[in-house]
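Chapter summary example.
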Amino acid sequence: MDIQLPDGDGIGALEQLRGNTRTESLKVVALTAFAMPDDRRRLLEAGFNGYMSKPIEVGAFPAQIEGFLRSS
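The structure predicted for these 72 residues follows.
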């Protein structure tokens, strides 16, 4: 999930997902241009299952997501 959304932010959207019994267990990876050292920690503490910074490597993206799904 992108962290910078047009009508809000990814953290708020994640909170909505986690607050709904039908979507609370979805695995969600933060995708963001925020790449400061504290950003990864902050987003994982917010409840994301993984963190990726932009730009992504298109060829590696599927394997990276698969890795997050297996590890969490």
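To summarize the output: Residues 27 and 49 are 6 Å apart (CA to CA).
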